[in-house]
Amino acid sequence: MNSSNPNPLKQYECGEFQFPHDAKHEYYDRHVVFDHVVSMDAASQRERFEAVARSLRDLLTQRWLLTKETHDKENPKRVYYLSMEYLMGRTLVNNIINLGVDKFVRDDLRSDPRQDWTDVIETEPDAGLGNGGLGRLAACFVDSLATLQIPAIGYGLRYEYGIFKQTINYGFQIEQPDHWLARPDPWEVTRRSETVQVPVGCRFGMEKGVLVTIPGHESKLLGVPYDRPVVGYGGRTINTLRLWGAATPDFFDFGEFSSGDFVGAIVDRLLAETVTRVLYPSDTTLAGQVLRFVQEYFLVCCSLADIVARYEKSNKDWQHLPDKVAIQLNDTHPAMAVAEMMRILLDHANLSWDEAWDLSLRTLAYTNHTLLPEALEKWPVRFFELICPRLLEIIYEINRRFLDDVEKSHPSDENRATRMSIVEEGPARQIRMANLAIIGTHSTNGVAKIHSDLLRSRVVHDFAEMYPERFNNKTNGVTPRRWIKLANPDQSALISEAIGDKWVTDLTEFRRLLPLVNDSDFIARFRKTKQVSKERFASWLKSALGHEVDPKSIFDSQIKRIHEYKRQLLNAIHIVVLYNRLRSNPETKMPPRTFFFAGKAAPSYRLAKLTIKLINNIARKIDADPVCHGRIKVVFLPNYNVSLAERLIPASDLSEQISTAGYEASGTGNIKFMMNGALTIGTRDGATIEMAEEAGEENFFLFGLTAEQVVSTRGWYKPIWHYENEPETRAALDAIFNDHFSKDEPGIFEPIRESLLLKGDFFMHLADLSSYTQTQQQVGQLYADSDAWTRRALINVATSGKFSSDRTISEYAADIWDAKPCPISH
Questions:
Q1: Sheet of 554-559: strands edge to edge?
Q2: Distance between first and last Cα of the chain
Q3: Its Enzyme Commission number (predicted)?
Q4: Which end of the chain is less congested by CB atoms within 10 angstroms, N or C?
Q5: Which of 505, 668, 729, 773 does the annotation list as catalytic?
Q6: pLDDT at position 61, please?
Q7: Measured between alpha carbons, how far is 556 from 35 in angstroms, rounded to an integer?
């Protein structure tokens, strides 16, 4: 740092950071040479990336410290967001955008003629901290919290290997370690002095090479905090994402070692390191289930200990806890916080049960993210007995008191009490985490209107009847900074030219685009931004993965976690229908279309992995058939992550949101596509319903059964009827199941046949196939009229303002947290 101007924040003006004039290259050059002990000429691309990142961290550090100091001084109510996932994406480019220093990177650092700074950005790996929509939502939320200047800390786990790196081999998904931390992460700051001790009710050992638990012998884990800056747009507030890494106490028993009895210490260390090694260990084995349970317990213990320590620094009276602390549980993963908060208030603060329960209830809130019963977590009582017996005692007492209340309100209704109990009786008793979360918090929210309605009316009806005031909706949103300004610079520039740039922090400004829908010049320019994005993506795809695609074709994208209810299989069957049409009549008229798929399947999810295999086999067969050349192409993009989404979403013409109605809680990918000028083909599900309400259903391609129809037809639905009575359906399925796409692997897709035709087709692929196929024909017809297509695309963009995460967070802050901005002075 230049000694004559030690504080770069003196250059902070109009919400943008600037480096001091006389230190333009000092930060970067210093980090290249002194951090890595290399000359500028010898520095690798990775070393140059780290130098850029650390230069920016130098720039934001004082503002980061000032944010913390202001919050400590002002003692406002703070929001603490607990989530097992944060799908952050790359940090460098996001911080460049939010700090407003892109000119610094673009101009000042280009003094180094050897480096393409686009390549520098590409060097950073995506942080392996999440998998799907849950984690990306959390990332958008912490961005909005900082941008809205709401004091907040996000808590999560520092997964060393993420979930996994996906590769495709002979069409199959192959899971490999995603070692995103193989090199030092320039953004994280280790806070070892703030390490937290987590008590564990047992020890682990080895017997004949098998891991065993040793009950009654307590042990400890250490939670080491790693802090990452969360930069609000304009750099006014820089909040913190605190990630916990697991370790063991630094204790070495020399006598034990000398006697040769050191296996226990080695096992303890290995187990501690394993706790935060991967996201979502497989739950098909007992060891995997225990590990995931320990992860959730570890996250909750570390985070609440940290929250309480912060509270006690500035507050002496526990009665003010709900006035200073708001804790949001992102799904059931952190639901143990209900019991842990009670433990702290009972055992640490020495409050009475009634006092502790009142304070805990008013402090905690819960977001539900699923309508799938199997996704509502349940943990064996045995796990609690082994790992955290004190929490189990508290849960039993919470349940006893709660069931007393149920009995008072519904005397002699044993079935209701059984349904609502936190403890599920059976051969192996289990703790229902969703029940615990609802009972122990003052707010339960869904994430789209239909989701919240179905949650109240079906999934947890008894609780909604008992606590109607606790249930509310907060429709999801995404941050426009990353998903429009960063991801789609051409569209962003055109919009800012037309209406100014206030939209970056107030997306309702997009409605000012509506009068331009009939402006032929603007429509042509808007269409050009889409074409530029498609050409850019096609160029990247060829260089990165070797696929050649036609940027003039319809880019039709379905990118999301691979799951039966999301119905990638429905999309694949429709592609086979089109393929069969071309084979039967090569003169069939249809616009050229490129189908993109991306997403990961859980390693143990056989049908999901088989769907990936089917998609890749279809792609290979179509590529080899001359009749399809230039007409249909299918591409499965491996290792889907935030950076890939940033490339593909702006380039996409059509967004596939085709889940079985009533099963998608909200979706956020659907929102990102809408904001970037893609039209949606979808069911009336999740946030897609509200998107269509904003834009008008005539500007969407909606099809298929409604959520009500799915329920009402389930009792008599016969998928075999569609096979027997719909010729195109039968021909497509015959092609798949008679090995047309798998001649060297006969019978490989038999489990899919069994699922669809013999086991009831639970997610109703065949029930919706004809409607989906007909609606896809409408897609092709409209695409032929480029002006009409572009007008609808612009209407979608113009009406997407409701779906900013800034709006969502403002509603959380007002309705659930009672949290207000705490501006940071310059």
A1: 632-637, 593-598, 554-559, 654-657, 679-682, 701-702
A2: 20
A3: 2.4.1.1
A4: C
A5: 668
A6: 94
A7: 45
| Dihedral sign for Cα atoms in the order 30, 36, 38, 43 | negative
**Number of helices (H), then strands (E), in the chain:** 34, 21
Exposure string for 221-230, b = 16+ CB within 10 A, e = fewer? bbbbbbbbbb
Query: Residue 357 burial (CB < 10 Å; 0-12/13-18/19+)?
Result: buried
* Of 120, 114, 122, nearest in space to 41 by CA: 114
Q: DSSP secondary structure string, 788-814?
A: HHHHHHHHHHHT-GGGBHHHHHHHHII
Asked if residue 753 belongs to a domain, the reply is yes
Question: Bridge partners of 214?
Answer: 203
Residues in a beta bridge with 240: 153, 229
Active site residue 566: yes
- Flag whether 162 is in a domain: no
Verify whether residue 192 is a known catalytic residue: no
Distance of CA 182 to the CA centre of its chain: 23
Q: How far is CA 692 from CA 145, 397, 650, in A?
A: 27, 46, 19
Q: Name the active-site residue from 63, 165, 228, 369.
A: 369
Q: Look at residue 12 in the predicted model and tell me its pLDDT.
A: 33
Long-range contacts of 618-621 (CB under 8 A, 24+ apart): 618/572, 618/575, 618/576, 618/579, 618/741, 620/171, 620/741, 621/579, 621/740, 621/741
Given a contact cutoff of 8 angstroms between Cβ atoms, the answer to whether 733 and 723 are in contact is yes
> Which residues constitute the domain of residue 29?
8-73+93-118
pTM beyond 0.85: yes
pLDDT attached to residue 102 = 80
- The catalytic residue among 136, 292, 560, 807 is 560
Question: Which strand (E) or helix (H) includes residue 123?
Answer: helix 117-123
Per DSSP, the residues of 511-568 read: GGGGGGGG-HHHHHHHHHHHHHHHHHHHHHHHHHH-----TTSEEEEEES---GGGTH
**Which parts of the chain sit beneath pLDDT 50?**
1-16, 18-24, 252
Question: Cα–Cα distance between 372 and 114 in angstroms, integer?
Answer: 53
Single out the catalytic residue among 566, 600, 621, 791: 566
Domain boundary (769, 785, 801) is at: 785
**739 inside domain:** yes
Is 88 in a helix, a strand, or coil?
coil
Provide the pLDDT for residue 1: 33
Average pLDDT for the chain = 92
CATH number at residue 563: 3.40.50.2000
Name the residue among 676, 593, 601 with its Cα closest to residue 638. Answer: 601
* Closest listed residue to residue 642, CA positions, set 131, 53, 300, 71: 131
pLDDT at 44: 87
Active site residue 561: yes
The whole-angstrom separation of Cα 203 and Cα 219 is 6
Residues 6+ apart with CB under 8 A from 814: none
The answer to whether residue 211 is domain-embedded is no
For 519, the token pair is: 């402006």
